[in-house]
Task: inverse folding
Protein backbone atom coordinates (compact mmCIF):
# COMPACT_ATOMS: atom_id res chain seq x y z
CA UNK A 1 0.00 0.00 0.00
CA UNK A 2 1.19 3.49 -0.74
CA UNK A 3 -1.49 5.49 1.07
CA UNK A 4 -1.21 6.58 4.66
CA UNK A 5 -3.39 4.55 7.05
CA UNK A 6 -6.56 6.21 8.36
CA UNK A 7 -5.91 8.28 11.49
CA UNK A 8 -2.38 9.34 10.53
CA UNK A 9 -0.95 12.33 8.69
CA UNK A 10 2.48 13.15 7.29
CA UNK A 11 4.14 16.58 7.26
CA UNK A 12 7.47 18.41 7.55
CA UNK A 13 9.07 18.30 11.01
CA UNK A 14 8.23 21.20 13.39
CA UNK A 15 9.46 22.49 16.75
CA UNK A 16 6.58 20.85 18.63
CA UNK A 17 7.79 17.41 17.48
CA UNK A 18 10.88 17.60 19.72
CA UNK A 19 9.88 15.01 22.34
CA UNK A 20 8.27 12.58 19.91
CA UNK A 21 11.08 12.75 17.38
CA UNK A 22 13.87 12.30 19.92
CA UNK A 23 11.97 9.36 21.43
CA UNK A 24 11.47 7.71 18.04
CA UNK A 25 15.12 8.23 17.05
CA UNK A 26 16.34 6.69 20.30
CA UNK A 27 14.98 3.40 18.88
CA UNK A 28 17.54 3.78 16.07
CA UNK A 29 20.68 5.10 17.75
CA UNK A 30 22.04 7.37 20.47
CA UNK A 31 20.38 10.77 20.28
CA UNK A 32 22.43 12.08 23.21
CA UNK A 33 21.65 15.28 25.05
CA UNK A 34 19.80 17.41 22.52
CA UNK A 35 17.82 20.26 24.07
CA UNK A 36 14.67 21.77 22.61
CA UNK A 37 16.65 24.89 21.70
CA UNK A 38 19.34 22.87 19.91
CA UNK A 39 16.57 21.01 18.09
CA UNK A 40 15.00 24.32 17.06
CA UNK A 41 18.39 25.67 15.89
CA UNK A 42 18.89 22.61 13.67
CA UNK A 43 15.41 22.93 12.15
CA UNK A 44 16.09 26.64 11.50
CA UNK A 45 19.42 25.77 9.84
CA UNK A 46 17.74 23.12 7.68
CA UNK A 47 15.21 25.72 6.54
CA UNK A 48 18.04 27.96 5.28
CA UNK A 49 19.60 25.25 3.08
CA UNK A 50 17.96 25.89 -0.29
CA UNK A 51 18.96 23.92 -3.37
CA UNK A 52 21.08 26.15 -5.62
CA UNK A 53 19.68 27.73 -8.75
CA UNK A 54 16.09 27.07 -7.81
CA UNK A 55 13.24 29.49 -7.38
CA UNK A 56 10.73 26.97 -6.03
CA UNK A 57 12.01 26.98 -2.43
CA UNK A 58 13.31 23.41 -2.75
CA UNK A 59 15.49 22.48 0.21
CA UNK A 60 18.33 20.03 0.82
CA UNK A 61 17.05 18.84 4.19
CA UNK A 62 13.61 17.28 4.04
CA UNK A 63 12.60 15.64 7.30
CA UNK A 64 9.06 14.35 7.67
CA UNK A 65 7.08 13.00 10.60
CA UNK A 66 4.01 10.78 10.66
CA UNK A 67 1.57 11.97 13.32
CA UNK A 68 -1.25 10.01 14.95
CA UNK A 69 -4.04 12.52 14.34
CA UNK A 70 -6.10 11.79 17.47
CA UNK A 71 -3.21 12.24 19.91
CA UNK A 72 -0.64 14.31 18.01
CA UNK A 73 1.97 11.64 18.80
CA UNK A 74 4.96 11.29 16.51
CA UNK A 75 4.78 7.72 15.22
CA UNK A 76 7.64 7.90 12.69
CA UNK A 77 10.39 10.19 11.46
CA UNK A 78 12.76 10.17 8.49
CA UNK A 79 14.80 12.37 6.17
CA UNK A 80 15.64 12.65 2.50
CA UNK A 81 18.74 14.84 2.12
CA UNK A 82 19.24 16.14 -1.43
CA UNK A 83 22.85 16.47 -2.54
CA UNK A 84 23.91 18.68 -5.47
CA UNK A 85 26.66 16.90 -7.43
CA UNK A 86 29.20 17.76 -10.11
CA UNK A 87 28.57 14.52 -12.00
CA UNK A 88 25.47 13.85 -14.07
CA UNK A 89 25.54 17.48 -15.21
CA UNK A 90 25.11 18.86 -11.74
CA UNK A 91 22.51 16.25 -10.85
CA UNK A 92 20.80 15.65 -7.54
CA UNK A 93 21.00 12.52 -5.40
CA UNK A 94 18.63 11.87 -2.51
CA UNK A 95 19.98 10.23 0.64
CA UNK A 96 17.46 8.61 2.96
CA UNK A 97 18.67 8.97 6.54
CA UNK A 98 17.59 8.28 10.11
CA UNK A 99 14.38 6.33 9.63
CA UNK A 100 12.62 5.37 12.85
CA UNK A 101 9.12 4.20 13.66
CA UNK A 102 8.22 4.46 17.35
CA UNK A 103 8.00 0.87 18.70
CA UNK A 104 4.32 1.39 19.62
CA UNK A 105 3.53 2.00 15.95
CA UNK A 106 5.59 -0.63 14.13
CA UNK A 107 3.99 -3.18 11.82
CA UNK A 108 1.26 -0.79 10.62
CA UNK A 109 2.83 0.04 7.24
CA UNK A 110 3.97 3.43 8.55
CA UNK A 111 7.63 2.74 7.76
CA UNK A 112 6.72 1.85 4.19
CA UNK A 113 4.48 4.89 3.82
CA UNK A 114 7.32 7.07 5.12
CA UNK A 115 9.90 5.60 2.71
CA UNK A 116 7.47 5.91 -0.21
CA UNK A 117 6.83 9.55 0.75
CA UNK A 118 10.54 10.39 1.03
CA UNK A 119 11.35 8.60 -2.25
CA UNK A 120 8.56 10.47 -4.05
CA UNK A 121 9.78 13.73 -2.52
CA UNK A 122 13.27 13.02 -3.84
CA UNK A 123 11.82 12.36 -7.30
CA UNK A 124 9.72 15.52 -7.24
CA UNK A 125 12.76 17.57 -6.20
CA UNK A 126 14.58 16.24 -9.27
CA UNK A 127 16.81 13.47 -7.90
CA UNK A 128 17.97 10.93 -10.45
CA UNK A 129 18.24 8.32 -7.68
CA UNK A 130 17.63 7.93 -3.96
CA UNK A 131 20.01 5.78 -1.92
CA UNK A 132 20.43 4.63 1.68
CA UNK A 133 22.58 2.49 3.96
CA UNK A 134 21.03 -0.03 6.32
CA UNK A 135 21.66 -3.09 8.46
CA UNK A 136 21.32 -6.53 6.89
CA UNK A 137 18.25 -7.10 9.09
CA UNK A 138 16.37 -4.27 7.37
CA UNK A 139 17.07 -5.36 3.78
CA UNK A 140 13.70 -7.11 3.51
CA UNK A 141 11.89 -3.98 4.68
CA UNK A 142 13.59 -1.79 2.06
CA UNK A 143 12.99 -4.38 -0.66
CA UNK A 144 9.27 -4.11 0.16
CA UNK A 145 9.67 -0.36 -0.38
CA UNK A 146 11.08 -0.97 -3.89
CA UNK A 147 14.80 -0.68 -3.10
CA UNK A 148 17.45 -3.17 -4.18
CA UNK A 149 20.99 -3.94 -3.08
CA UNK A 150 23.67 -1.71 -4.60
CA UNK A 151 27.29 -1.41 -3.52
CA UNK A 152 28.82 -1.95 -0.10
CA UNK A 153 28.62 0.42 2.86
CA UNK A 154 31.99 1.32 4.41
CA UNK A 155 33.02 3.74 7.13
CA UNK A 156 35.81 5.08 9.29
CA UNK A 157 34.75 6.15 12.77
CA UNK A 158 36.19 9.25 14.44
N1 LIG B 1 12.71 -7.34 7.52
C1 LIG B 1 11.87 -7.76 6.55
N2 LIG B 1 10.63 -7.23 6.36
C2 LIG B 1 10.24 -6.24 7.19
C3 LIG B 1 11.07 -5.75 8.23
C4 LIG B 1 12.35 -6.33 8.38
N3 LIG B 1 13.23 -5.90 9.32
N4 LIG B 1 10.41 -4.75 8.88
C5 LIG B 1 9.22 -4.64 8.26
N5 LIG B 1 9.12 -5.53 7.25
C6 LIG B 1 8.01 -5.71 6.30
C7 LIG B 1 6.66 -5.77 6.98
O1 LIG B 1 6.34 -7.08 7.35
C8 LIG B 1 5.75 -5.22 5.90
O2 LIG B 1 5.48 -6.24 4.97
P1 LIG B 1 4.06 -6.29 4.15
O3 LIG B 1 3.95 -4.96 3.40
O4 LIG B 1 4.18 -7.48 3.29
O5 LIG B 1 2.99 -6.38 5.20
C9 LIG B 1 6.61 -4.18 5.21
O6 LIG B 1 7.97 -4.53 5.49
C10 LIG B 1 6.36 -2.75 5.71
O7 LIG B 1 6.55 -2.74 7.11
P2 LIG B 1 6.11 -1.51 8.01
O8 LIG B 1 4.93 -1.88 8.85
O9 LIG B 1 5.97 -0.31 7.15
O10 LIG B 1 7.40 -1.37 8.93
P3 LIG B 1 7.52 -0.52 10.28
O11 LIG B 1 6.56 0.62 10.27
O12 LIG B 1 7.47 -1.44 11.43
O13 LIG B 1 8.99 0.12 10.13
C11 LIG B 1 11.35 -0.05 10.52
C12 LIG B 1 10.13 -0.68 9.84
C13 LIG B 1 11.53 1.39 10.06
C14 LIG B 1 12.59 -0.85 10.12
C15 LIG B 1 11.11 -0.12 12.05
O14 LIG B 1 11.11 -1.46 12.47
C16 LIG B 1 12.12 0.67 12.89
O15 LIG B 1 11.95 1.86 13.16
N6 LIG B 1 13.21 -0.03 13.36
C17 LIG B 1 14.21 0.56 14.24
C18 LIG B 1 15.02 1.66 13.58
C19 LIG B 1 15.65 1.23 12.27
O16 LIG B 1 16.23 0.17 12.12
N7 LIG B 1 15.51 2.11 11.24
C20 LIG B 1 16.04 1.91 9.89
C21 LIG B 1 17.47 2.34 9.86
S1 LIG B 1 18.17 2.42 8.21
C22 LIG B 1 18.11 4.06 7.78
O17 LIG B 1 17.75 4.88 8.59
C23 LIG B 1 18.45 4.50 6.37
Result:
Amino acid sequence: TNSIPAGFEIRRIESRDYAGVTTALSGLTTVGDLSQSQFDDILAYWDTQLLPGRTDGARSYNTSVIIESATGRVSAVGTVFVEKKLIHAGGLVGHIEDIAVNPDFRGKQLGKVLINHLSAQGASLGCYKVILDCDEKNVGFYEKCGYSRAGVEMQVRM
Remarks:
- The chain has one domain: 8-144.
- Residues 27-28, 96-101, 106-112, 132, 134, 137-138, 140-141, 144 surround acetyl coenzyme *A (CB under 6 Å).
